[in-house]
Amino acid sequence: MDKIEPKHANESQAEYKTSSRFHNNISHETLALILAGGRGSRLHQMTDWRAKPAVPFGGKFRIVDFPLSNCVNSGFRRIGVVTQYKAQSLIRHIQHGWSFLDGRFKEFVELLPAQQRTVEETWYQGTADAVFQNIDILLRHNAKYVLILGGDHIYKMDYSKLLAEHIEKCADMTVSCLEIPLQEASAFGVLGVNDQRQVTSFAEKPAHPVPMPGQAGKALVSMGIYVFNADFLYKQLIRDHQDHDSSHDFGKDLIPYLVPRYRVFAHRFMNSCVNMSSGIPYWRDVGTVDAYWEANVDLISVTPQLNLYDDDWPIWTHQEQLPPAKFVFDDDDRRGQALDSSVSGGCIISGATVRRSLLFSNVKVNSYSYVEDSVILPNVEIGRHAHLQRVVVEKQCVIPEGLTVGIDPEEDRKRFYVTEKGITLITSEMLGRDIHKIC
């Protein structure tokens, strides 16, 4: 099979043209589906009024921007986004930020909301059912391959390498996999593979995960990223839909059925991850407030594990037209400064100190305030003399003058949500302002 990697010095011009044609062909023959309908309840109040993929991340992005950007950067520009739970914020973001694809070249990001399209007139019952209910739409695109993606993880991946491996192995289905510590594997679908990396067993969230051969402390787990031959996928979705004992989920039902009967292979994420730091693949499920805080705060470290300063693999998003960040006052007791921090456009640090924190756009920190080890989402105003430490502040919050949070967890729990690791989540509702519909 022809290579699809970029041209190297020892690769002939003819070989490069062949590989480029191969890459273009498979990209035009592939339809990517991002399953973005989940709530993400472990993020608590952060997903009360928006789906998890719409949650802001990294100072200017939304979580869904990562799989969308991976698609575009991989050359896949026929994309469907499947939505269900409180999708308005997600829909608005995609409309504003992802309208640059050109329909004249059959490029698109198409929204596929739950519409009760089947005769049962039900909402999406599971991940497989979400795809099944849109089969008629998918058939119109006449794709040869279907790439199934989750909309709620942070990572950078070249999907073209995954698809090339799928084609090379003549697979019916390919599952992208991570190697993780065995003690963490119970939260995932765990795979067993042979020497050719064909999947021989699959267990969804087993109580006692099976370790990898020769690596007793690790397990091979599914990332929820799949490639199917399109015709094969449609047949299996119809079969699963007719099984009344099925919960119509890829991990719980489809994969366990397919593994002993068809050619299902595992793809190592190591082989397609982009911008690995120290050779370690970056993939994060920011599904808890602790994990969300940790992943955002890591971005302000000297060498973050996730490289967002990469011109070759940018993360695309909706760009607001905002003025640059501003830091004002330089008195000894009233100095506007941000140290070891990331500050987005539209922010004003007015005689306040910000340390080791990430500020999204349009945040105003007023005089004599102190913000440390915190994640502040867009359009927040922090009043004078406030002290915030190890907090996540939701959009639109107005922090009262003199409020102290993060020093006394027991006192904080009376008003706010405090995690097991001591991270405090602050929302407008907790502060007595009912603006939950602004998400």
- Work out the strand percent: 25-35%
Annotation, overall tally of beta strands: 31
Mean pLDDT: 91
* Alpha plus pi helix count: 10
List the helices and strands and how they pair.
Layout lengths: L12 H16 L1 E6 L20 E2 L3 E2 L2 H10 L3 E6 L4 H10 L10 E6 L13 H6 L2 H6 L4 E6 L3 E2 L3 H10 L4 E9 L7 E5 L5 E6 L13 E12 H12 L8 H9 L5 E5 L14 E2 L4 H10 L27 E3 L1 E2 L2 E2 L1 E3 L2 E2 L4 E3 L2 E3 L2 E2 L4 E2 L4 E3 L2 E2 L4 E2 L4 E3 L1 E3 L4 E2 L4 E2 L3 H4 L4 E2 L5 E3 L13
Parallel strand pairs: 1-4, 1-6, 4-5, 8-12, 14-19, 17-20, 18-21, 19-22, 20-23, 21-24, 22-25, 23-26, 24-27, 25-28, 26-29, 27-31
Antiparallel strand pairs: 2-3, 6-11, 7-13, 8-11, 9-10, 9-11, 15-16, 30-31
Commentary on this structure:
This protein is of the alpha/beta class and 439 residues long. It has 2 domains: 23-300, Spore Coat Polysaccharide Biosynthesis Protein SpsA, Chain A (Alpha-Beta Complex), CATH 3.90.550.10; 326-431, UDP N-Acetylglucosamine Acyltransferase, domain 1 (3 Solenoid). Helices cover 21% and strands 26% of the residues. The termini are far apart. The model is unreliable at 1-18 (pLDDT under 50).
Write a brief caption for the model.
With 439 residues, the chain is α/β, with parallel strands linked by helices.
